[in-house]
Inverse folding.
């Protein structure tokens, strides 16, 4: 790893020292203050808003992962709605959004375009955009356009490029028990072991680096609306592949690393878990390429930082948004 700048080391450890447990997260999350179906290219997407869009503080929209996930992993972020509006949504063909099921809609550019459609529908002049995992890809692409509407961007455990993602996956696999490694490798061949063995080996990886807490997160215990069709595995398989270890879908050659040079570091925050699928060393390397960017490592968290450490993650976001707000005054 290249030497980390003193400024970045200071920012990193300031964040680690800052995150202290808050009150326990709720098992029942607040109902949305507003719900709407927003027309986008290809159909309509479900959008929910909590908090006051006219509070004087820029709202934040969170972009979920997948591809094919839903907004539910971001329910813990509703704690931020006491200061600013929090906008959650399901991407097309996921959750409560329309499900046209047309693969021609499943492109990076079209998913990025959903953000501007939502902003226009809500009449927002300026906002923060936060994306996690695949949602980080969308946030990266949106921020690289340098829209005047962007107050800041949070790249949480982001997929920046497929080659870096696979490199990290291989490095993390090498830390697993030898037999688990062998099983995962055999599962990628044309004659894999029985599915039960592949699932068991994959679970060992996920328990270590994806969601580390064995207890089901509060966000997934909350009642699910009957209109919510949940994750779209077909979309995930089409764009990514059958597992986190090998990309065989349309994202297999995705490379957003050149976009890092187009970000404004003064309004960029990277967030990563201590045991993330995107290793902290990789996230730090990306942050170094965005002059002035900050990075937060969430202690004890895997890839699902909000699920593993919701209080700490919300605290980091709240502090960063507060500082950004002061810059805008």
């Amino acid at each position: 790893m290249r030497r980390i700048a003193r400024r970045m080391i200071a920012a990193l450890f300031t964040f680690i020292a800052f995150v202290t447990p808050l009150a326990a997260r709720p098992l029942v999350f607040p109902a949305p203050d507003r719900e709407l179906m927003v027309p986008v290219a290809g159909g309509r997407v479900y959008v929910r808003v909590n908090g006051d869009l006219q509070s004087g503080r820029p709202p934040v929209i969170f972009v979920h992962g997948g591809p094919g996930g839903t907004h539910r992993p971001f329910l813990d972020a509703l704690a931020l709605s006491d200061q600013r509006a929090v906008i959650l949504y399901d991407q097309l063909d996921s959750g409560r959004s329309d499900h046209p099921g047309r693969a021609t809609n499943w492109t990076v550019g079209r998913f990025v375009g959903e953000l501007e459609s939502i902003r226009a529908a809500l009449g927002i002049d300026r906002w923060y955009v936060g994306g996690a995992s695949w949602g980080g890809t969308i946030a990266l692409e949106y921020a690289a356009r340098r829209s005047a509407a962007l107050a800041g961007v949070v790249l949480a455990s982001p997929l920046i490029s497929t080659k870096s993602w696979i490199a990290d996956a291989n490095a993390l696999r090498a830390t697993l028990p030898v037999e688990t490694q062998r099983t995962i490798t055999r599962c990628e061949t044309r004659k894999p072991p029985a599915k039960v063995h592949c699932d068991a080996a994959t679970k060992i990886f996920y328990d270590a680096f994806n969601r580390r807490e064995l207890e089901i997160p509060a966000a997934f215990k909350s009642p699910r609306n009957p209109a919510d069709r949940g994750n779209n595995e077909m979309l995930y398989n089409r764009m990514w592949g059958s597992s986190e270890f090998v990309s065989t879908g349309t994202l297999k050659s995705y490379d957003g690393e050149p976009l890092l040079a187009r970000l404004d570091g003064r309004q960029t925050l990277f967030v990563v878990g201590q045991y993330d699928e995107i290793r902290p060393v990789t996230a730090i390397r990306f942050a170094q390429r965005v002059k002035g960017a900050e990075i937060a490592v969430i202690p004890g968290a895997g890839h699902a930082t909000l699920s593993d450490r919701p209080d700490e993650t919300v605290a980091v976001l709240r502090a960063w948004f507060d500082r950004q707000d002061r810059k805008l005054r």
